[in-house]
Amino acid sequence: MTDLLRPRVLGRSPRRVDGPAKVTGTARYAGDQHVVDPAHLHLVQAEVARGVLTEVEVGAARALDGVLAVLTPDNAPRLASARDAELAALQSHDVAFRGQVVAAVVARTREIAREAAALVRVRIDPRPHDVHLSADRDDLYAPEKVNGGADTDTSRGDLGTGLAHSPFTLDQTYTTAWYNNNPMEPHTTTALWLDGDLVLYDSTQGVHTTRQATAKVLGLDPRRVHVISPHVGGGFGAKGTAHVHAIVAAMAARAVPGTPVKLALTRQQMFSLVGYRTPTVQRVRMGCDADGRLAAVALDAVSQTSRVKEFAEQTARPTRMMYAAPNRRTTHRLAALDVPVPSWMRAPGECPGMFGPEVAVDELAAACGVDPVEFRVRNEPDVDPETGKPFSSRNLVACLREGARRFGWEHRDPTPRAREEAGWLVGTGVAASTYPVSRTPGSVAAIRCTGPGRYLVRIGAADLGTGTWTSLAQVAADALGVDFGDVELRIGDTALPEASVAGGSSGITSWGSTVVAAAEALRERFGDDPAAGDEVRAGMPDNPAAGRYAMHAFGAQFAEVRVHVDTGEVRVARLLGVFAVGRVVNPRLARSQLVGGMTMGLSMALHEHSVVDERFGHVVNHDFAEYHIATNADVPRVEAHWVEEHDPHTNPMGTKGVGEIGIVGTAAAIANAAHHATGVRVRDLPITLDHFL
Amino acid sequence: MDGEIELRVDGRRRRLRVDTRTTLLDALRDGVGALAPKKGCDHGQCGACTVLLDGRRAITCLALAVAHDGAEVTTAEGLADGERLHPVQEAFLERDALQCGFCTPGQVCSAVGVLDELAAGHPSAVTADLTGPVEATDDEVRERMSGNLCRCGAYVGIVAAVRDGAR
Ligand code: FES
Ligand code: FES
């Protein structure tokens, strides 16, 4: 590993570069891009969970004044590739889940499109469906790999023996709910064909990944697909892979030559068309000695996937590297159901997968009478317990200690239900967080000198609120040895050099490493004082340390929870997180990411739950009135801090990523605090008042 | 059926024809080209479409355009004076009370409305004393800003920014 970039601009807190445009509402999101006289597209969805389309009657819709086209499986053009069943819009008469797109209407105005969509009569011959997730199903199967390419099952030592020889054991099942990402900006695509080229103004976490996916499905040369996405109204994974609406928008625009077509999904449609976090069932087994030293750890995770496209949540992944124990085992099993296709949602794997085990640790620590902070410290591994690789840096203990100090943990009486204040039972809890450092290959950056000491940096990266417009420019400034103001960054467009998707907290690691490599190439080629017009391109270099070290960020989260004695109402009074995330590029923005993640974790703990009506196979609470996300009044003091961490192995910036770790462990800390407050152990999310009555 | 209305948006007078089903939000965005208000839900559940309507905060996705002929609308864009930001906008930047920014124009308009309501002494569900002036405490701000959802979880910064704006 070369030396880390010398921080001059890194570590400072310039305000968001895109901030003025965002506070005045002049930042242009996908739906705000100017196109001339657009038509509007509205989707029609299947209202049964499984069946065969027998008729799509479009006469009444077509007859409506202002309707330009109606697409159905009977008349939609054949796609070049229907291999990805999620994207194979209108290619088949089979209905694989409730909410599947079965028709699409293009009209002169939004109102007409919507009215016409309501006039499309869809007849479906229903078939028996099954949307019931349970760990007791006899048709669970082991996927080949789980999301991110990790092994499905792992095992070390002998779990049975480890448990049998442990004086304290735990065998409990925990569940997390079905969650919908619900970024505030609904997925929006404006599609336009220009001389055989397709232009998409799209809300996406990766312009190039959207280009690749749509080009493949539509049978186009990727160079003829142009994706533009300078600002994205949140994604949280839901805009990380292409979804069907972008394909339908492109098809619809082809049906009305010369007219741009605008499609914005409704909030309700987002519950079936853009991915979601699968519910999980987690059987945790642990065994430890009287000092709380673990001899055995196991997690068997069950989640769902759709019958037409597999997504295997890597729920057990964090269990593989969190705590030392000679005997260990993890498994993943899937139930293939007649449900919409699950996908990424903020910290897939780690977020749900740190709920069960981190509550289990709390239970086992209590059973053997060891403080839960201390219990975790005692089980700190020297090396990655499964691979035997050293950690590039691991500061979980520092986070736990620093968090305990800031939170005031030392005066805590561990007795449950011991503190009552004015009708509220008060408790505190802790849980650990972790998230891997990932790096996605495929990025290229171009740097051009535009004048003395001034540079234009171009890379098709994305900013979904993560701060890329600012933080990547900071990286570039230090890589080029100039001031922040001397760098002009361009991102969010396929006209720029290729960039990897904003996912897995890999943005700064991947794009930043690429920008640093380009800056080095510029210096090599043109010396320290390039002339205006000098330009280089460079791809993301390999990281030789990648295979040698286990690279992860860590954190510790502390929660104070109040449960009302009479009503069972649960409130979080305080959240405090301390994280070890390598070097922090921009403290102002990083804090927002961490606090935002913790806030979403609070929301997951107490409020969010997509409720499925198994008779009909759909999420019944499919809007913000009933799918509750935390509101301002639900969120009290939330503090995020970090410990100094020097990691020379992750990337030239020494960063680890901050977008996802904040949501990992929050729900467990809150559940543990709720137990401390009430003596009631909640093992199923969300933590609602009925648990306490 | 169409109707003709006149709106004053961010100080500029606009006449436009609208479908009687068109919401004020769609009329602003599609008809006037005022793109600061956003559509997060179209059902009055998120606050992203908040503007100041005749001086008071209002969600425009639940208002029909034809019912607001002659209305005066201020969007987040109109709160700023060209490059000069409104103090609340300035506070949002300083506190980094935003991430993706999609809820932000609505938050900012709502915040300006909240500060006016506080100054006018309007009580909220958490106001203890209904007779005296109301203070911009954290609890008051949280309560009053809860019609504006933020999926990025910028609430802590938003509360701080609104309180800064009260000074
Ligand atoms: S778009 Fe109007 S409240 Fe959500
Ligand atoms: S800043 Fe993204 S929803 Fe509020």
Quick recap of the structure?
With 693 residues, chain A is of the alpha+beta class.
Summary tags:
heterodimer; A: 693 residues; alpha+beta; Aldehyde Oxidoreductase, domain 4; 3 domains; 5-stranded mixed β-sheet; B: 167 residues; Ubiquitin-like (UB roll); DNA polymerase, domain 1; 2 domains; 6 helices; 34% helix; binds FE2/S2 (inorganic) cluster
Structure explained in plain terms:
The complex is a heterodimer of chains A (693) and B (167). In chain A, 22% of the residues lie in helices and 25% in strands. Chain A contains 15 helices and 28 strands. Chain A has 693 residues and is α+β, with helices and mostly antiparallel strands. Chain A folds into 3 domains: 19-28 and 441-539, 2-Layer Sandwich (Aldehyde Oxidoreductase, domain 4); 33-128 and 184-234 and 240-273, Aldehyde oxidase/xanthine dehydrogenase, molybdopterin binding domain (Aldehyde Oxidoreductase, domain 4), CATH 3.30.365.10; 147-179 and 276-437 and 548-691, 2-Layer Sandwich (Aldehyde Oxidoreductase, domain 4), CATH 3.30.365. Chain A starts with 18 loop residues before the first helix and ends in a 15-residue tail after the last helix. In chain A, strands 3-5-1-14-11-12-13 form a 7-stranded mixed sheet. Chain A has a 5-stranded mixed sheet with strand order 9-17-16-15-10. In chain A, helix 14 packs across helix 15. By secondary structure, chain B is of the alpha+beta class. Chain B folds into 2 domains: 2-78, Beta-grasp domain (Ubiquitin-like (UB roll), Roll); 87-166, [2Fe-2S]-binding domain (DNA polymerase, domain 1). Helix content of chain B is 34%, strand content 16%. Chain B has 6 helices and 5 strands, in the order ββαβββααααα. In chain B, strands 2-1-5-3-4 form a 5-stranded mixed sheet, sandwiched between helices. In chain B, a hairpin with a 2-residue loop joins strand 1 and strand 2. In chain B, helix 4 (104-119) packs across helix 6. Chain B is globular, with a radius of gyration of 16 Å. Chain B starts with a strand and ends with a helix. The model of chain B has no long low-confidence stretch (mean pLDDT 96). Chains A and B meet through helix 1, helix 3 and helix 14 of A and helix 1, helix 2, helix 3, helix 4 and helix 5 of B. One FE2/S2 (inorganic) cluster sits between chains B (98-104, 150-152, 154) and A (184, 234, 465).
